Amino acid sequence: MSKASGRTFFLRPQDIIGIVVLAFILVVVLPLTLDNFRLQFVGKYLTYAFVALGLVLCWGYAGILSLGQGVFFGLGGYCMAMFLKLEASSPANTKIQTTPGIPDFMDWNQITELPWFWEPFKSFGFTTVAVVLVPAFFALVLGYAMFKRRVGGVYFAIITQALAAIMTILIIGQQGYTGGINGITDLRTLHGWDIRTDSAKTILYFVCVALLIACILLAFYVKSSKLGRILVAMRDKEDRVRFSGYDVSSFKIFVFCLAASLSAIGGAMFTLQVGFMSPSFVGIVPSIEMVIYTAVGGRLSILGAIYGTLVVNWAKTSFSESFPELWLFGLGGLFIAVVLIFPNGIAGLWQTYIAPHLGPLFGGVAKRKATPPAPPSPGTAPAAAE
Amino acid sequence: MFSDYSLAELGSIFIMQGFAGLILFSVFVLMALGLAIIFGQMGVINMAHGEFMILGAYVTYFTSQLFLHYIPSLFGIYFFIAMILAFFASGALGMAVEWLMIRRLYKRPLDTLLATWGLSLILQQVYRSVFGPREVGVELPNWMMGSLPVTEVVEVQINGLFVMGLTIAITIAVALLMYKSAWGKQVRAVVQNRVMAGAVGINTEKIDRYTFGLGCGIAGVAGSAFTMIGSTGPTSGQLYIVDTFLVVVFGGAQSLLGTIASAFTISQAQSTMEFFLSGSMAKVLTLLGVVIILMLRPQGLFVIKVRR
């Protein structure tokens, strides 16, 4: 499919090495060196990595900065949580309630009947499809409305941020249907398999890693395909792409939907591993934090975003444990530094300072172009509707 | 939902809620004015705008404490001095931020968004460490307390009226500064065509710095006015930032008149609905309405035609 020399399938040799190294770290090194408690933390961070991955495609490659990825993460997470909650609220488990068989928070809010939109989530098949498709559909509607009217850049960012705010207020306000500010808690089993035990959490960790690797491969495929090149072309000179006869908005809608689905898969895995879902993962603050994972990792690097997510979250956890008041300084400083000092993140530092020295060690890789084409100044997103 | 009330009651409800909406409107306008200058004129997305406002609020709080303890005889007029101090404190911080950070980022608007978000996190933590996590409120001087009866059932608070009057005065001052003064002309020239403005001898860097400082200074005054009607905490600013951005975008980013019109629409819609629905649903419906209208009309309510 690609005429570029030296490619096997759609991966370049250094991409294959990168993926193998990442997989090795996640599957072998971390489970062997960390205790169960810490490994579950890594599993939680990896669910954010799905969001970061979506942002690399959407923001790094296509120049669409969405500050509402938490909405999609939340939608995926809530879909999964609704299924698990229904399973946990079987009539046998909830016989002390006024209305047995409905989730406990509904009972507390004097709701006597399962709302219609909860009904389909009794089926696991429907839930898995919904996890991917509900956020994608949501993104489709949003993207269609915005990109067809050539709204982009800053305006898109602000509107998605407003949506994140709306979604949070809505979830908190509609306590009877959504569990309110506490979210959907006390999830127990998946088809009778207890997800709260240590062994289940370890298995879920590996499922999460496998899914993540699959999504990484998908991202590489999109990146190396013709579509990926159109996305980059669009980011850099949108008008030229449009004048060449491409329907710019359709490509943007597609990549936005893809990013939404990826985030939602992360959200669903989050619910499974952590055992609850709440509006605190939906709003403005978590959404913009997810952007910083991508920015720190390198907005143009698929693998970089994964490492960025791990590093930022690891720093957050260890700082919050020892110096909680310092963490906001650290996070704030990170936002500023990643913009002013290293705009291409960890991946950019790696390519500039470390990769050239590694080249001679791995002869095969070194023969390729030593310097990757200089990434264009980031953030040159097309101006909003003019 | 209207059937439970008599016509006279409905009238009073609308007037009372309309007045509450006007106070919200004043806060929106004061915050949005600064943002309209920074975002609308300069194209910088200042996510730390709320924190500049809170700085003004803290300055006001400390001035009030100072007057209360050392010169209680002049307590009645402390607010006017506090307002001036707030303007210069926020403005100076704004100019420093522009010099250190923003001026490197004029060509990357999305990156200013991230950087200023980082700044807002840092400022919040600074406020929390310095002033404590608890919310603080100022004591109002006597003449600002109480309310004026308009009819038997309708009363309006004096501090609300004062904030409204202040809003009108500041809006007029900003409009005069932007559209009638020589400096305002230079600002608009730089915004419309930076290269050309530089070519005719305008010091564009200096204009940028003062414009940003002015926007932040107005945010400081907004914070000062905000203390009259609510208490201040380290994260109060963040509560308003999204609303304020929507106000500016909805109004048409480059038009001051549009900003005022959209602040009016949004605040009235929200406060009227708040009476009949729960507060959260009123907010959801208002924001959703704004977002949908923006999807249909991305350029906002008022547009200035500029040849590019």
From TrEMBL, chain A:
NCBIfam families referenced in this protein's UniProt entry, alphabetically: urea_trans_UrtC (TIGR03408)
Name of the protein in question: Urea ABC transporter permease subunit UrtC
Name of the gene encoding the protein in the UniProt record: urtC
Keywords associated with the record: Cell membrane, Membrane, Transmembrane, Transmembrane helix
Transmembrane segments: 16-34, 46-68, 124-147, 154-173, 203-222, 243-270, 290-314, 326-350
Membrane topology: Multi-pass membrane protein
Domain of life where this protein originates: Bacteria
Localization: Cell membrane
Keyword Transmembrane found: yes
InterPro entries from the UniProt entry: ABC_transp_permease, ABC_transptr_urea_perm_UrtC, LivM-like
Pfam family, one: BPD_transp_2
Principal localisation: membrane
Automatic annotation (TrEMBL), chain B:
Keywords: Amino-acid transport, Cell membrane, Membrane, Transmembrane, Transmembrane helix, Transport
UniProt cross-references to InterPro entries, sorted A to Z: ABC_transp_permease (IPR001851), ABC_UrtB_bac (IPR017779), BCAA_transport_permease (IPR052157)
Subcellular locations according to the entry: Cell membrane
Database matches in Pfam families: BPD_transp_2
Recorded topology in the membrane: Multi-pass membrane protein
Bilayer-crossing regions: 12-40, 52-71, 77-97, 109-127, 158-179, 212-233, 239-263, 275-296
Record-stated family: Belongs to the binding-protein-dependent transport system permease family. LivHM subfamily.
Family annotation (PANTHER family): ABC TRANSPORTER PERMEASE PROTEIN (PTHR11795:SF447), BRANCHED-CHAIN AMINO ACID TRANSPORT SYSTEM PERMEASE PROTEIN LIVH (PTHR11795)
Name of this chain's protein: Urea ABC transporter permease subunit UrtB
Taxon lineage: Bacteria, Pseudomonadati, Pseudomonadota, Alphaproteobacteria, Hyphomicrobiales
